[in-house]
Amino acid sequence: MNNEIITPDKEFEQKLRPSRFEDFVGQDKIRERLELFVQAARERNDVLDHVLLSGPPGLGKTTLSYILADAMDTNIKCTSGPVVDKPADLAGLLTSLERGDVLFIDEIHRMQRSVEEYLYSAMEDFVIDIVIDQGPNARSVRLNIQPFTLIGATTRAGMLSSPMRSRFGLVNRLDYYDAATLCTIIKRSAGILNVDLEDEGAMELAARSRGTPRIANNLLRRARDYAQVKADNRITRDLADQALNLLDIDGDGLEEMDKRILSCIIEKFDGGPVGINSMSISVGEESDTIEEVYEPYLIQEGYLQRTAQGRVATALAYRKFGLVPPTKD
Asked: Is 248 a residue of the active site?
């Protein structure tokens, strides 16, 4: 399960990924809590409690998992919820762990319920019960496993079952980063990549990165390419602006799909409310992608409201397109 193909984008991401708490920028309260729990576990020579990390994509859930494993001086095995689709897959992972090892499951909310139930006893009692054969010959075999730490990452914490969520001792939600913090991250990445980056250029990239370090690093990469071809390999504010405009990312950090979603609600559905399925068909994008990738930022920035009746465009969304917001009844 770990024999994944390393694409250039993933290799780029791994190169910039911090490996220690000291190098992890942002999420100060979460970082402080996790450092304390790691120190306490190490002083007791104990295993770190199970950790749940939730929040939008690209905020550092996977990075924190690697940092935790490194801080505990243990191995980490990585997989994802959809990949572990049979109890035998889970049993193979769990029985291969040594004491204190970290099992990281990304998108844990997408794990099959039949597989998830095997995790309950594994997380609490460090045993798994495997049913062998079927019908009258069926019998249960109990396997003891080494105490381990499960780190679950999810972008949809609400989709986790209550029994699963209750078994995590440390629950943390990662929030979007502010522009100043992203600017620090971009400068650190530029130093690793030997990119000549001015402070104003870094701030321009940070302001249009949707509060997400992964996007910030990707924009830095694109700006580096643009500077290499169009300029003298130096990223200034003007050059960053030109590079981002080429990518259809405006001054507010909105992409083409963001603006398509807002204009669809305003023009086709009179500002809403509109259901997610109707909106998905209108803009030609999967409803899950809209909910997980685009909506959180639009809601946070005040362009969109999610109501019981559906999605509604705000007055700010109207002004974004130079339109007059409708008066409320």
From this structure: no
